[in-house]
Structure formats: structure tokens, C-alpha cells
Amino acid sequence: MDLVPALEEPLKKVLGPATAKVMAEHLGLLTVGDLLHHYPRRYEERGQLTHLADLPMDEHVTVVAQVADARLHTFASAKAPRGKGQRLEVTITDGSGRLQLVFFGHGVHKPHKELLPGTRALFAGKVSVFNRRLQLAHPAYELLRGDSEEAVDAWAGALIPIYPATAKLESWKIGKAIQTVLPSAQEALDPLPDSLREGRGLVALPEALLKIHRPHTKADIEDARSRLKWDEAFVLQVALARRRHADAQLPAVPRKPAPDGLLTSFDARLPFTLTDGQQKVTREIFDDLARDHPMHRLLQGEVGSGKTMVALRAMLAVVDAGGQAAMLAPTEVLAQQHHRSIVEMMGELAEGGMLGGADQATKVVLLTGSMGAAARRQALLDLVTGEAGIVIGTHALIEDKVQFHDLGLVVVDEQHRFGVEQRDALRGKGKQPPHLLVMTATPIPRTVAMTVFGDLETSVLDQLPAGRSPIASHVVPAADKPHFLARAWERVREEVENGHQAYVVCPRIGDEEDDPKKAGKKKSPEDEAEKRPPLAVLEVADQLAKGPLSGIKVEVLHGRMHPDDKDAVMRRFAAGETDVLVATTVIEVGVNVPNATAMVIMDADRFGVSQLHQLRGRVGRGSAPGLCLLVSEMPEASAARQRLNAVASTLDGFELSRIDLEQRREGDVLGQAQSGARTSLRMLAVIEDEEIIAEAREEAAALVAAEPDLTRLPGLRTALDALLDEEREQYLDKG
What we know:
Number of strands: 21
Largest sheet: 7 strands, parallel
Number of helices: 28
Distance between the termini: 26 Å
Mean pLDDT: 82
Structural class: alpha/beta
Low-confidence stretches: 519-530, 667-679, 726-735
């Protein structure tokens, strides 16, 4: 299938090498088609000028305004010692506010002639602060000329597209480039089947491209957006539906647990009953394991909802059926912790081949990069002979030397930490594709799950096991109310005096390597004042031990410590020998110390919503209630404080993940899942467009079931090729 020549034309042929180079380097746009799909971020109505009153700091903005005043000053400086330096100050206004523009040196001549009071123009630049006033230094500008009355009216009523731009390429230059290539839109191949487009009343693709870039009315923009959102949702869902279809054709060994085997003995030992949620999810997993094509299931659940228990029972079922199960954890701390807790839960059932091991017992081995040679050799031997039914490890499991006797199930913990390549390498170790269970404790809104993990069936655990305690969360405004911070340390002391333990989390380690003072990046004085470096583990631990927490046993934990030291610190904390652990986010996932009841997160505004929720889940894991204090110096009205208030107000991770997404947009979410590929969503907003995504998924599933190879839909195949460029194709193949 030849790709459409007009849209595949390289930009350097159409726009010239200099512009094409900037577009490729700064915006990732290489062809005419890429440029046509670079949509406006918003539209300015010339009649309603951008509000200068709401300008964001440190962002590239485009404003439409009128010159109120222009003055040329001379001054003396090192370069112009005789008072020959020139500075042009122009004040512009749009009725809502005023903004100062400054031009220096030789750069003053042209604007001095052109920016006369009363002149209207588009101005673009980066908003900064000087002498406590907002300004644009050396902005690019485009004069807006309209002579006749009608021209002025037409001009004032027109919709100006404002494009996502960069310092090197202003919005209107992108607009001009798009006008140059817009005629090619007529040749765009439509990816939507006619029946779908007509059935949903969507405009044709060439018309949508024309209307998005050159709208006459707001209705044009709506038509174009509705259509282009469908393209993105549908093409992505077809890609995922084809993955599901292909997976369903692969062979796998069905794994049914033997009656009265390891799983039965394990269940008999459990001191509690599983929650209804755990039982329901277990049934879904066991049904999948019994089939003769590989399971692909995403198990998502709240922090502490008992995912590990569900995964362990699935692993035991596979061992019962004669296979082996591997659990992949993102960090050594976590792998060791899983290994410890699984061995504890299994007791003598984990002592296969040892004295005192039960009859049905198997061996549970740990494999990490920092193990000694002898222990590693033994672990590898246990895997290849099948002596070990369960292995828990880090990416060390993926190395070529690791071979399995019969790998039946791969459990991946904390999906977003693993590249697809790593999952794929582990899956390649089975004689036939093993079953795959992916777990995440970052709850994902349903639409994101459908968009990012649409090739996986999803199970959700939203009940907490009995005996779990509620966690009270509060924001501590350290700058406005310093006595609140003092009280926070008193609360930590009280918890310790009552026989409990606490975590203090900081964004940075504070050793030479990550010390921002040593880093060579120069900052402006405003930056220095606004942004002190984030608080660091080593400094905070030192201050606490000497000050508010003196006399209490404080230890530190961070990612650059030697693995043995990390493990020793975790063991001491778990055993209750340490009272307070000052750590980075290495404790974010899976660390389980039921006696830890309090957590203080320093500079909490430097963390994302989901991350704060994850961290908070480390406390309240026992019978005593948990307390989480979010310390921040950000002002009351800031977006950062609103984020923290949201975290403090609910313990529902699904609700928080929606808030997080609405604030961050989904580029981050898709970015981390698409193995770093640029998000393919330019128009679709995962949360807002929930209905479109769900409907597109149904349409895609029906289409792929009827016609998996899409022979009669050349436009759709072209769009899939564009979406699944090599990197994404590999990503989806490996999913």
C-alpha cells in the first residue's frame, strides 16, 4: 500500500531547509501530513483580545494587543560606556491589563519605527518578571493591518489559530507554513470506514483539516474537533483490537490447579478469608489460566487492597499445574520485600526439597543483580531444573543466562516502571508464551486503561481487606504557619512514644551527585528567589536527629545506597529497631511495615498526585490508624496547593487519578506507557472524551472481528502505519 505522496512530502522540500529543521528538531514534524496534524491549541478572536491579566509565568505566549505608549531611553553600560546604550520600552494593553515589552541595542530601531501608539499587533515571547512587573523581552511581533472599515471588521471577527509553538518558531509562522501546505489536505486518505462516518454524522477528513486550521465560525471548529477525536480514538483502538485478536490466536499451555495440591494447603493456612473482590478477581484469573491461549490481564487496585495475595494464589495454581511462575519487581528493595513476605505467607510450603518442608512444597527463590556468585548459581540451577516453582526478581531475571524448566506465568509488579522490551524478554523464556498478569497500585481511570492498556483485560480490586485502618491526611502550610510544622514533628514524636514508627519522605538525596548548587545550570535571580532546591534526605535527617527528633533512632534510605545497606536498613525498620526512616520515593511501592503509622512528606508539592497517594499507602497498614502530613511552602491559592488539598480530601485512588489527569493532561500517562514514544493523542482528551473512547473500542472490536487484515480499508491501514511507526509497532507487538 503506497502512502499518500502529497502528505508524505518532506517539509524541507515545501518550506525550505531552515524552517523544516526547526520543525523537525523542536516539534517533531517531518512531513506535510505531520504539519497538517499539528492542530491549533486554541483560537483568538481578534475582537476579544487575550487577557493580559492572566498571563502565565515562564511560558511562551501569543497575545493580541494595542500599543499604548512607546519610549526610547539611553543609558550607560559596560558595552556602551558613554550613555549610548538604547532601550525601547513599549506598553501594550488589551483592556484587561497592561504589559511591558523591552527591546535593547540594535534591536530597538525597527520596533521604534513600527510600534507607534494605537498600532495593533500579535506579540509572542516568554513572560518574565522584572522589577516585580511582567514583561516580554525582545518579543517577536506581527503588525495587524486592515485599511477599509470592512477589512477591519472582517479582521476583528476572524478566528486566529494559536498553535503549540516554541521559542524558535512563533505560532503565526507555524500558521503561515500550514496555509502553504493546506491544499494538500484534499488528498488526505480517510481512515474511518464510510459506514461509521455517515452513521455518526462526521465530516470527511479533508474538510475537518480545512476547518481546524481555517475556521470561519466556532461551529467549524466543533465539527473538525469531533471528527479528529474520532480518528485518534478509532485508529488507536483498532491497533489494540488487532493485538487482542492476534494474542487470542497464540497457543499457551492451560494451567489448572491440581485438587488438594499446593494451593489447597496454602488456603488452609490462611488466618483470614479473602475479600469478595479478591475472590471475584481470582475467578477471572483462574478462568484465563485454564484457556489454551495466553492470559493478558491488568490487575489494578488500591494501595493495600491485597493484589499480592491474588497474584501469589495464581502463581501457586500454576505450580500445582506443573509450571513455574516468575514475579518481576521494579527495584531490589521491592523484590527482597516480596520474597520475604511470600516466604513468610507460605511457611513450610516454601521449603521444597528441604528438611521440614511440606509434601507439596516448592522452592521460592530470589534473583537480583547484586547477589553473590554462589547464591546466584544455585538460584539459576533451581530454575532450570524446575526445583524452584516461584522466582521473584528484578530485571536480572531477563538476562540471557536465566533459563526456566517450564515458565507458565509472568507477574509484573508496577507496570509503569518496566519497559515493554523487558516484559517481552521475560515472556520469551517460556517454551510457549506464558500467561501474563500485570499489577499496578496506581489506580487508572477506566478510559486510560482502555487507551493505554487496551490490549489487556482489566480486573479491579477496590475493597480494602478487613483490619485495614483509615489514614487521616492534612496539608501543613510551612511558610504561612510555621508552628504547624513544629506540631507535625511533635505528632511524629507522639507516634514513636506510643510504640509506632514513621516515615519522612524528601524529593532529593542531597549528596554531591544531585546537589543543584554544584550543577552548572545558571538560574535567573527570580528563579533563585522562587525556587529553592527541593529538600534532601541527608540534610533533613541530620536536622531532625539534632533538633525536633533528637533522642529518637533516625535512619536514611535512598536509591544510591549499596543494595546490601538498603536491605539492612529496611530489615531494621521492619523489625522495629529504627523509629523514623527518612527516605526518597524508594519506599513508594510495596514496602510493608504494619507498625509504621505516620508519614511526613516534605515539599509535597514536588510530587504528583498519584505518587503522593502511593506514598501515603505505606502507613495505616496495621490495626492503628495512619496519619499523612503533606508539608508545602506553596501559597494557599496556587495550583500546587489545590493538588495537595485534593489528595488530603479523599482516599479514593481512582478519584485522585482522574484529578491528576485533568491537571496534567494525558501526555505523561501515555508517554510512560508508550515506551517513551510521543503521545499520539493531539486532539483526544482521555478524561473528557470517555464516551468516544468507549464507542470507538466497540466499533474497532467489531471491525477487527469481521475483517482482521483490513484489506478493504486502505485509509485505515495508512493511519495505522503512521501511528505504529517502528517504535510503537514494537511496543504494541511486545505489550
